[in-house]
Amino acid sequence: MDDLPPLALLGGHLATGLMDVTSDPSALDAEGFWAVTADFEGRLTCARFRDVRRIAAGGVPAAVWHGPSARTWSTSLDRSAYITGVARIREHIAAGEVYQANLCRILSAPVGAGADVLALAGLLGRHNPAPYAGVIRIPRQGVEVASASPELFLRRDGKDVQSGPIKGTARTEAELLEKDYAENVMIVDLVRNDLGRVCDPGSVTVPDLCVVEKHPGLVHLVSTVRGRLRDGAGWPELLAATFPPGSVTGAPKRSALRIIDALETAPRGPYCGGIGWVDADRGRGELAVGIRTFWIDRAEEALRFGTGAGITWGSDPEGEWQETELKAGRLVAIASAGESYAA
Description:
This protein is of the alpha+beta class. 24% of the residues lie in helices and 36% in strands.
């Protein structure tokens, strides 16, 4: 679908007229409006657009989504492999190597040449609205992403920065466990440490801790961490200090990343990375954590979607598998033209 015109629909902005593309994060402190995708593995794509206008909620241009059958989805880790992975992480925790690690799996289904992520984004917006929903379509750069993310990775307004880590997921508030609250507090501490590396001493605060947010089909525990960038720190320093997002890695982050690399069998790509926009002229921007996110892999002619869970000592392996199913089921069914889904 190289003939589809590049565009981005992010934060109420519809951006068209692609000007240039770079992997240099310093461009985000220069000029212009940028759509940004950062793969979990580190590939950064910053695309500057010429024409940007505000668009109302639900204003995605109409298009027909040609999705896969629900019966064609496969997973990089099946139930047995995932449960084994949870047990392995608990062994790492018992050995004192990590407190928490996020274990994810990638779902894939064949998709035809006519599939357009803009149409999928419209479908998601109608059936699963999300605060950080967006779409970036730059086929020649291999970026075709539609996200219904509920999670704020980074918001920047001048020197003021904010993150909104999510940890703790259940069908209802009553089903949240003590383990969910403990998970959230651990990740908040990690995010505080990440922001503290680039913020003025004493400026990092947590105004909200473990707030229950309701989303379609589930609830999350969400916290807020704020700070003020020190002099000389911009987007390159901020991304270097905080990426990948703490809520989708674990604590300590370096140990969690090593464990993730050993246990996961497929790259996460834009899932668990960063997706959003930066208005360099105004010194503002907003990046979501790339969860609840679909992307098209044209080389493999596949639609992909990631799902995962945070593993702690208190994790029940079967329960963690079911959490990944809860996060995936509704959205994969939407992308499968409303068909029911089960891994």
